[in-house]
Amino acid sequence: MPRRSGKTKEKFKTRNDVFDKFTSETLFRLISRGYFEGLESPISIGKESNVFSALRKDNVRVMVKIYRLETCDFNRMYDYIKSDPRFPKLKKGRRKIIFSWVQREFRNLLKAREAGVNVPTPLAFLNNVLVLEFIGSGNVIAPQLKDKKPEDSEKFFGKVIGNVKKLYKARIVHGDLSAFNILNNSEIPVLIDFSQATTLDDPNSLSYLERDVRNLCIFFRKLGMEINAKKIMDKLK
What we know:
The chain is of the alpha+beta class. Helices cover about 40% and strands about 20% of the residues. The N and C termini lie far apart (about 50 Å).
């Protein structure tokens, strides 16, 4: 591992209350590989993960998603991932599940991106840390749909469903799609949080898709749209 400079240590000095030693080591390794220089401001702080903005040497901003090793609900993660045929030999162990969860999100985002879905480009992952394309303007992250209603609800909804259809054609189901997991990036929906996404080979995929469509319909009905979840499902297949 490359030698750590005092400058690099200083960047993490104020974050000792957030990161355990293992996570700090993982972040240092990603820094040494050039994926980012140091963390900036927190974008979101949750029970399972923290998301920070970060800058690369070329001043391009990225997002760094860090899963908490001690507070992650790895039992819930395991319930989602155990039926995913891409992880057939995964054993129930906290770190193994969390690391597989991060790898799964990276793979899902990569496949979604290749299918033309509006998602953050996955840039790298290591252990419990994921590096992603920054979605927003300058140093301001694009707001969640729940916080920034679209100017044209019908048009925005159509774009969201278009992305869901592209996912379905790529044999992926998001599994937790709602106004919390869609960014409104200047009236362009960007789907995020793909760790629970699974393939159509997963026996639970259809029920996850139905739940996604149901959640979307509930939200957009509140914006005045008349939507039938069953008709939307029929259009996706």
